[in-house]
Write a structure and sequence with these properties.
27% helix; 150 residues; 6 strands; single chain; 6-stranded antiparallel sheet; alpha+beta
Length: 150
């Protein structure tokens, strides 16, 4: 991994926070952290969806911010599900995260679908300014435990 990852786990298992390198290497680390955090919920949110959306947020932060300042990932476990935030140093809000611009993504381009996925698959999403830039977040509800055959 390029750079160091500073890991901090608060005393309460309700949230996880990690500083990730400003590189593509941050994406698999973020996915693994989200999967580990959600494994602690008794009836957790959909891990696959959480990993996918987290990867999108981290990849966007790496691609659309300049410099080598770390990106911070925060995973908060809530009774109703989870909230994942990615903090980056750029104060500019993400393009069309909360309000679609009406254009369909170009089917021939690799880019342009990440925010659409976040809007479509999360129960809610948004962004907020922080002291050092912005935080972009999404929420996922818990998934009820499947009935088991008798």
């Amino acid at each position: 991994m390029n750079g160091t990852a500073l890991y901090e786990r608060p005393a309460s298992p309700a949230s996880w926070r990690i500083a990730l390198p400003h590189s593509a290497a941050a994406v698999p680390v973020a996915r693994a952290l989200v999967r580990t955090a959600l494994a602690e919920l008794e009836h957790g949110a959909d891990c696959d969806t959480a990993e996918l959306l987290t990867a999108e947020l981290v990849a966007n932060a790496v691609e659309h911010t300049v410099g080598d300042s770390p990106i911070e990932l925060v995973v908060e476990l809530l009774p109703s599900g989870c909230q994942v935030e990615v903090h980056d140093p750029d104060p500019a809000p993400p393009g069309n995260l909360t309000r679609p611009d009406g254009r369909e993504p170009d089917p021939w381009q690799e880019h342009g679908r990440g925010l659409l996925l976040i809007r479509a698959l999360s129960s809610s999403c948004g962004h907020r300014p922080t002291e050092s830039g912005k935080a972009v977040w999404f929420r996922l509800p818990t998934v009820p435990e499947q009935r088991r055959p008798a």
